[in-house]
Amino acid sequence: MMVIDPHAHMISRTTDDYQAMADAGVVAVIEPAFWVGQPRTHVGSYIDYLSAILGFERFRAGQFGVRHYCTIGLNSKEANDEALAEAVMDILPRFALKEGVVAIGEIGYDEQTPLEDRYFRRQLDLALELDLPVLIHTPHRDKKRGTSRSMDVCEEHGVPPSRVIVDHNNEETVAEVLERGYWAAFSIYPSTKMGDARMVEILRRYGSERIIVNSACDWGISDPLAVPRTAHLALERGLPPGDVHDACYANALAAFGQSGQMAESDWLAPPPIDQRTLFEGNSILRGGRPPVIEQQS
Amino acid sequence: MSVTTPKLLLGRWIARQAAPDAAQWLEDHAAAIGEDRPDATIDHDLAMILARMPRRFGRDDLFLDAVDLAEADAACPGWSPAGLSLDGAARIYVLLALPAEGFAARFRRLRQGADLGELVALFRGLPLYPDPHGLEAEAAEGLRTNMRAIFEAIAHNSPYPAPIFDQHRWNHMVLKALFVGSALAPIQGLEARANKELAVILRDYVRERRAAGRPLPPDLWRCLEPHAAAAGALDELAAARLAAIPAPAPSIEEPTA
Predict the structure, then answer these.
(1) Does residue A284 form part of some domain?
(2) Which of these, A86, A247, B1, B150, is most buried using a 10 Å CB contact count?
(3) Which InterPro entries does this chain map to (chain B) (predicted)?
(4) Touching check for B172 and chain A: CB below 8 Å?
(5) A204 touches chain B (CB under 8 A)
């Protein structure tokens, strides 16, 4: 079974994770630009980070036969550092049109401050200007109201709901998000977000239309196999295979594919896996393991 | 045939293959980018134009025939546009429209924020830009990459490295080609720039590979041969020659050779 993990911070993950994801059927991942666990203090760190997620990380994923895409944005936490945020806004447009950038994101609210609001709005305008979909991070605290407000602001700026993926939903937010015509994404993340069994119940109740499952795996305790795991659990519990396919594969492709930067042919007819392209002196292949070379048939 | 330039050639090849509105868009932006404006404005516009190229032109190969390749070689000896994509050619075209003053600094800023396709185009244009010596540090930085496509954009089928790199940099480029499994044959100037120091390093490399029971790269002997005796590497040369039989097809042809 092929699955897509449309929210995975692979820059924080190991090669074992990539290998396990590939083995479990993950054909593509989307890496949203996010907060790196502590605040960046210079725009230069942002430039290097954005370059890394659309450059070397993309290459690294390719070594394992996983296609890698990213979203570009200023996250809500760092929007509160005005000097940094201004400098980041100046350089964002240059990164947003690079190859494999499938949305502006993840953007939205954290504490719902005026500065967060300002940069959320400016990035919505940027998405419209550059004709890119939007990935919205909904806040952990005051989530229900923060989610409604995020959609209100999208509508105020004229961003069509069909172009917006609202992420980190739960049982409390999903009905409104679907009703208003947005894509509703769920992060299967231990302790703080959704669990896989709860996710299966949501699919049973709401069906699979516009529902997207992701892992949001990052530097915290999280599970890069959350999407294939949830897919298997859903099948085991008797959900229609078509619904599982939609939620764990097809919907993410349809939503982010609107960027024109992501197509099924990217992994169905990919360049062959070739790990020899690495330089031994600074290689992710440690200890002289023989490289895996897949011959083009 | 009148004297032509790489920029004129690129413009002609792009115009005959691209949609007319895309070609016009390119002309307009190339003209505008060369105007005298504040540096930051040029940087921003340039980054946006370069990023839009695949959307405007697609990623198909640039179509070239034997006459085109001959013209390229006449306009810039050794330059081979073979294997360029249409969007890559358009990117180089815009770079050639930039003012010569401050070119290396601008190249550096572009390189620092470039994606894979942009990096390939930036580096494939190296033989064509103003102030080739000023770009040496940029080429050196590019060679430090882990991504073979970038390495080969600099090292393969290009007249840039041979006259610019000093012996140390040259030798390390050749060695890196061996280490990343890149063919040596497409490196221009391989025989002319062979040197004893490189032969000594290759001699030791051959010994190391044999001690580890690993195969030798098939084209290593070409760099070793001219100075093998001086480097005390005749045994290693014999082993390296064996590795070349049967000679596999080179991964990239060298059309102007």
Answers:
(1) no
(2) A247
(3) EboA_dom
(4) no
(5) no
> What is the CATH number for A117?
3.20.20.140
Give the pLDDT confidence of A175-193 residue by residue, as tens digits: 999 999 999 999 999 877 7
Residues A43 and A49: their CA atoms lie apart, in Å, by: 10
- A289 within domain boundaries: no
In terms of Cα–Cα distance, which of B13, B42, B11, B16 is closest to B27?
Answer: B11
B121 three-class SS: helix
User: For residues A251 and A141, which has the higher predicted lDDT (pLDDT)?
Assistant: A251
Q: Rounded to whole angstroms, how far apart are CA atoms A136 and B11?
A: 42
User: For residue A111, which of A87, A83, A145, A82 has the smallest C-alpha distance?
Assistant: A145
Residues of A in contact with B119 (CB under 8 A): 55
> Which is more confidently placed, A118 or A281?
A118
* Rg value, chain B, Cα: 20
Distance of CA B130 to the CA centre of its chain: 16
B-chain residues near A59 (CB < 8 A):
116, 146-147
Give helix B39-57 / helix B116-124 axis angle, nearest 10°: 110
Pairing mode, strands A211-214 and A183-187? parallel
Tell me if A60 is assigned to some domain. Answer: yes
- State the residue range of the domain holding A35: 3-263
Q: How far is CA A270 from CA A30, A67, B128, in A?
A: 17, 9, 32
Helix residue ranges per DSSP H, B128-233? 136-143, 148-155, 161-164, 167-179, 196-211, 221-224
Residues in chain B, pLDDT under 70: 1-2, 246-257
Contact between B172 and B202 under an 8 Å Cβ cutoff? The reply is no
**Residue A279 confidence (pLDDT) above 70:** no
Q: Determine the pLDDT at residue B249.
A: 60
Task: Please state whether the peptide bond connecting residue B118 to the residue before it is cis, i.e. omega within 30 degrees of 0.
Answer: no
Q: How confident is the model at residue A293 (pLDDT cuts 50, 70, 90)?
A: low
- The answer to whether B54 contacts chain A (CB < 8 Å) is yes
Residue B166, C-beta contacts closer than 8 angstroms, at least 6 positions apart: none
Phi and psi at residue B155, to the nearest 5°: -85, -30
Total number of domains in chain A: 1
Residue A229 lies in a domain: yes
Task: State whether A51 and B148 contact (CB < 8 Å).
Answer: no
Gap from B124 CA to chain A (nearest CA, Å): 18
